[in-house]
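Ticket #4471: structure output looks truncated?

Reporter: J.K.
Steps to reproduce: submitted the chain below (403 residues) through the standard prediction queue, then opened the result file.
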Amino acid sequence: MKRKWLIFFLIVLLTPLLTSCWSKKELTDLALVSALGIDKTKDGKYLLSFQILNPGTVAGSLQGGGGGTESPPVTVYQATGDNLTEASRRASGHVSRRLYYAHTNLVVIGEKMAREEGVEKLIDGLDRDPEFRTTATFVIANGSSAADLVETLTPVDKIPSDKINKTLEITEKRWGHNIKSSLKDVMVNLKAPGKGTLVSGFKLVGNVENSKQLMNLQQSAPKSTLRSDGIAVLKDGKLIDWLYGDKARGTVWVIDRIHGTDFNIDWNGKKEVIAYQTVRQKTKISTHIKNGMPTLFVHSRVEGDISELDVPVELSNPTEVVKIQHALAKQIESDIGEAIRNGQKHGVDYFGFGSDMYRNHPQEWKEIGDRWNSEYFPKAAVKVSVEAYIRRTGLRNRSFLSK
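Returned output as attached by the reporter:
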């Protein structure tokens, strides 16, 4: 009898601990937002573009069925409001399901808005939402509105937000002219002492109207597509400049985000005839202050391979290899120096020298921190040193062009 009462007591005691589906969300009641575009209208309101997945279409295209060609894999809805919350609520008048942001992996800001208003006012609304993930990629539309990028249909990667994310990843690893920044990265850099912010740019190439049509996906050479293009420089949260080419690569090199890139080296008076691809590199920055004036130091060590020769070079000769290494080191030093001078010209330290000064010279920083970007960083002396090494030359030492 006592045993029965004990079992009954345990059941009553454990019942309140059993959870239920009080917060359940049926998939058929949710609209999965894969990307969010943010612009400003002429009357000063926020214009939000919601890129929503069409589950049936995406599943059909992934399985090789015909569903992917009957309707687009995503649908874009737009809504306006005085803030992000109001615009999101107003979107319910267009969408038959509740907007769900847990799968949002891309935030796009229009260039005009980034220049005129900046991005700081947006951060609170995005970071405060418990569903929104700060790991979402953050990009700025280069030369267009955010809506244009969000509405573009892309081949190969059926979901446009995946196309942008994957392109940034492979570009950073292989080319070194872009960086992939998350919303969290932008938040940290905006509040870092004496540091500017870098955000990747993406551009719509081709006709805007054609990019929104399904026929754009049914061509072997699409007339409209999305391309990673440039690095946006933010000062006080506002877009002030775009970095391209050697300036972009030099900047990525200084912040130690180079995973792989190629250099074309001059040789014996001929331009860009030796192709060198990096395998690994490590860059360190430091600061020193003397008599109230800072000096910026950059040291980099890079290793890589010779991938192509357009002139006969005896790579089995150590003297020739050393000459190539010196020429490569000078070229990297030039790119780094040009990138830093560009930052000094605009009065914004997006490399992290100010953060290094804050950590290692706290007493001096208290005196100069408020004037770092406006007075001290633009006038600071810069010293760059690079060690470059050739580790491999491919399947042959002697050039095919040699006699």
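Triage note (M.O.): checked the attachment and the full token line is present. The chain has two domains: 27-243, 247-392.
Status: closed, working as intended.
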